[in-house]
């Protein structure tokens, strides 16, 4: 695609050495995005990052990753000379970071977006053999369908694998107003993970814990995360209540005091769930060991109505 086939429009994003513009395809009137750096003025590392992104994106094909449409070099004196361009699909609904900054996202929304990110990572790690390297809310572009998103910005991507970044993105968006950079530093170099927002369900807290394990051997893979109850459970269907103490091991009942605070021994405020987390986990594990291997079926099928 060359300048005879498309026209550059307004700027929709700008970095230190490059910019993203809207573009019009003269052949069909379609709108797409163009990510460009000026070859005459951009530093070598910025040009290398765009070349790396072009090379990787051109080899990817997933509904959870932004679509590659092409690349070219154009002569644009008004922009400083020759421009290296990456052509991408245009998603006009903003980023996950924008959505989180505009309003407090509900846990069900975060669950949907986390599922999209996990599916993108599953494809990248296990099919494409690529690690993104810069997962954050601003690199998650929202689609028109609620809860659907695509991963973008592959300038830092490389052919390795790691899943801890998903948890950091989820923590940032669940907290919505937190300092994402500080959280990323704490996850990467600190001894402790960031504090989870008060009021999260047990499933959400456990999901984040699995993502943020510092030991790679303990950290869950994308495939495991997609099977986690936080992502795998239907958002519109409530599971059955436990019918016995042995059913508690598989349940996700939320504490009725969720959101309440109490003072710990040092006088600090803690979420009520924090006081029960360790004890609850131990209890669940013990009950799971005692529970029968064959689970009871409490559906409506096979029951007989009896009148007393």
UniProtKB/TrEMBL annotation:
Chain ranges of the Protein kinase domain: 6-231
Listed GO MF terms: ATP binding; protein serine/threonine kinase activity
Keyword vocabulary terms for this entry: ATP-binding, Kinase, Nucleotide-binding, Serine/threonine-protein kinase, Transferase
Gene3D superfamilies: Transferase(Phosphotransferase) domain 1 (1.10.510.10)
Amino-acid positions noted as binding ATP in the UniProt annotation, renumbered to this chain: 35
Keyword ATP-binding belongs to the record: yes
Keyword Ribonucleoprotein found: no
Transmembrane segment boundaries: none
Highest taxon in the source lineage: Eukaryota
InterPro entries documented for this protein: Kinase-like_dom_sf, Plant_MAPKKK, Prot_kinase_dom, Protein_kinase_ATP_BS, Ser/Thr_kinase_AS
Database matches in SUPFAM superfamilies: Protein kinase-like (PK-like) (SSF56112)
Disordered: region residues: 258-277
Family: Belongs to the protein kinase superfamily.
Name listed for the protein in its UniProt record: Protein kinase domain-containing protein
Native organism: Vanilla planifolia
